[in-house]
Amino acid sequence: MPPSSYFLSPCLVAQKVRESFTFDFETPMRKPCCDKQGTNKGAWSKQEDQKLIDYIRIHGEGCWRSLPKAAGLHRCGKSCRLRWINYLRPDIKRGNFAQDEEDLIIKLHALLGNRWSLIAGRLPGRTDNEVKNYWNSHIKRKLMKMGIDPNNHKLNQYPHHVGPLNPTTTNSMDVACKLRVCSTDNDDGVSDAASYLEDETPPTGISNLDLDLTIAFPSSPIKNIIEESQQKTASIVTNDEEEQYTVPTLLLFR
DNA sequence: AATACGGCCAACCGCCAGGAG
DNA sequence: TCTCCTGGCGGTTGGCCGTAT
């Protein structure tokens, strides 16, 4: 199957024409971010790492395009940036994710979707790439096993190992409800979705949730996004004839 | 011991947004 | 206002490694 870039929308064609007068449909759509000839690809060697570290230690981050030449690296600027951000930065936390980190990722993903950089921004020392990989390799599977659709955080009708749920119960478990389940104050945090599934008893009073909708975010951009997300969720929920309840709020940060 | 398979993760690719000129 | 350049982002790939057969 040809890459999707072979199917060009009119505006992309226009862009392509601007970019290159030698455009034809056999060549890749875009100019590479840098001159690929003479640049290394693949895994970084220790020497390359050291050069990058040394350079950034002296000159600081930024000017990624000119950095490789200045640092004596045969890499493209993007590659240098990625290597630094995802691996070489001194404040990077390596190793397994703690349970609370995992819980936080799930909660944030429920609110933000695949905005990995924003999610990673809430996890000190973690990179977006790391969070994304962890989500795809661990959490996604875990949620699926629990019968939760990792894309929308809703319960599937027939979870893999728990057995079929009462359809009415399942329908009532929309995003907001699950967020409530996930945001209970006990130590298990999000994992409580599992315990909820296991006892097959929906939390009583779902239709009458009385929860305070406040989220404490230290930085404003993410706050705006969360607020947006909440408004959307609220409108969805209140449009549901059967589910007229107040949208609960995650108290993510205290 | 050899091969197949699956998971993990670093790295790449291409698109997009924003700033500069 | 338009165009170009750059950095940032999310999706995807490919290689390595451990485990199963």
Automatic annotation (TrEMBL):
GO molecular function terms noted in the UniProt entry: DNA binding
Primary location group: nucleus
UniProt-annotated location(s): Nucleus
Keywords carried by this UniProt record: DNA-binding, Nucleus, Repeat
Chain ranges of the Myb-like domain: 36-88, 89-139
Residues annotated as domain HTH myb-type: 36-88, 89-143
CDD domains with a match to the protein in the record: SANT (cd00167)
Top-level lineage group: Eukaryota
Any GO CC annotation of this UniProt entry: nucleus
InterPro entries to which the protein is assigned, alphabetical: Homeodomain-like_sf, Myb_dom, Myb_TF_plants, SANT/Myb
Protein name (database record): Transcription repressor MYB6-like
Native organism: Gossypium australe
Lineage: Eukaryota, Viridiplantae, Streptophyta, Embryophyta, Tracheophyta
